[in-house]
Amino acid sequence: MVNTFGTLQFTTKICIANTGTVVGPVEKDSTFADSFDEVLSLETEKDETNEQAHARMIESACHWAAKKGHTQVDKVDVLIGGDLINQLSPTNFAARSLAIPYLGVFSACASSMESVILGCLLLESGNARTVLAGASSHHQAVERQFRYPLEYGTQKPKTSQWTVTGAGFSLLEKDLKNTPVVTHATIGKVVDSQQTNPLHMGAAMASAARDTIERHLTNTNSKMADFDVIMTGDLGNIGISILKEMFQDENTGVILQDAGAQFYGNDKFFNAGGSGAGCSAVVFFGQIYDQLKKGSFKRVLLVATGALLSPLTFQQGETIPCIAHAIECRMEKRG
Amino acid sequence: MWEVHLDKGKYLVSNLHISNTSEHTNTKKGASNHMKKSLIVFLMVLLLGACSSEKEKVIFPSDNSSSLKPIMQKQDTIYGYKSVINEEDILVAININRFDRFNKAKIEKKITKQIEKQFPEKKVLVTGDQKLMWEVETIIEKKLKQKELKKSIEKIKLLSKEET
Amino acid sequence: MDQQQFQKIVDEKNPKVPFFMNILKAFIVGGIICTIGQLITFFYMRFFPFTEGTAGNPTVATLVFIAMILTGTGLYKKIAQIGGAGSAVPVTGFGNAVISAAIEHKSEGYVLGVGGNMFKLAGSVILFGVLSAFVVALIKTILVNIGVVSW
């Protein structure tokens, strides 16, 4: 049943008016490259730190979303954003420049959908007219915080993933025509499947994705086949195959896909694929949003997956708990 | 509906299939290719490792007293030596066998003692150091005499005393 | 789905680690680095008044310098992806650990940033290296004093 056990149904018409996606130079050759609004030529300019570049990217994405949605950032009621860096510094500093009411959220790589869910709730309750919601990540900044110095020579295993440098933000507004509508959402539950390898997060996150997808389907009384695509954020090649295996009895076919696994195509350099809060954000608000708007997709479930570990918990021998937040988007018939 | 989906969304669909198949071929064919390559490299490494070279046994100037040679012949831990004899000094640079190099200091001391017993009036220096061997070879090649010989021997003795 | 079932799926889907190839690659890369080191040693012995015993110092310094260049230009991590332990174990690996940390933390200033974080990765190497040297020397001293081995 909707509005129970974390599955929300929105009774008002909450639309994604438009989106803004900004990515780094490495993402220029991505499978989804032509759906990004802006590709930066350098991940970090000469006189700035990685974190400053990260904040700049967030601002840029917000401006793109607002402009494409025929408004300006300073006219938006609330900004909701998240990233992976300690204390959400890049998003905080971007919010400082954007200077609108701001809520920072953290659920690791699931932050993009958490932001959108909160934005939808604000609009549903009539407490805001427009909301900018999204998330971002920056490769150098994340590597430095969670793993080793960038130039350090470690041998990355095939299960590791490459953090995407990208910021994706969506402009949410009510009662628009010919735009994708967020009809339902499912708030994730923290699921721990006893995985301990931080270089193999796909396996850790698969269980959380499964829980969210199952709960959503059960509570909305639907089956996988009712959707055009169910896309997870960053399970990676191996994670998505684990997830498909878990849904073995259902005919998942091409419905169940993963943004991270496809992000860099077949390039073995990126091992298991892309990851990061920005991965789900730029793909969902880029390619998927475009497909919805065109009408190629009519009903999608977007599941952003996040691993809730920190460098400290890993060193202390803890396992990796994960979470996955989901939104269901539908494109109404052309009217 | 599906055509449009496949067209723009072909990245989503076809990519999935490509990545699935390439994983399979990588593991099966790739494995046998890898095995062949690694075997060839391994054999090459073995072959090259078997190369060795000859070393001479020289005493300079010619061995007058002829009591140094038998001492050196007796040693089974070395495969070559070059020595320089002066009025006051005996300088022997030795080539120690590969595995005996762990006991380099002990071997040097042992040979020094043996030579000192035979030649109590001379100052003896036995060294296994490659650099000093080259220096001794230079002396022998250039056929240094008297003053230059003495200078070179002094230089070698200084070098051997150097610490890190 | 219970934990056991899930773990079985994970183990099934995990890519196999190519141990033999990894070991071979590490051997070759490590061997090449050490061969280059030996050539550098011969260079110093031939053209400078270093003996076999004292040529080790400039050799290590030169190798660390080379590691610095390779780390700064981003080449070392490419070698490391191929060689794994073969590039991490020689002194060049130690140099890479220190240098990469120093480069990374420049944005926090020289004293707290670079100075405070430079040995983040290499610190354990130094600590456990000194500790094991002490332990080995202690064991040898005891054995010599008992009379089992001699100096």
Automatic annotation (TrEMBL), chain C:
Keywords: Membrane, Transmembrane, Transmembrane helix. The chain crosses the membrane at residues 23-47, 59-76, 125-148. The keyword Transmembrane applies. Pfam families: SpoVAC_SpoVAEB. The keyword Metal-binding does not apply. It comes from the Bacteria. This is Stage V sporulation protein AC. It comes from Psychrobacillus psychrotolerans.
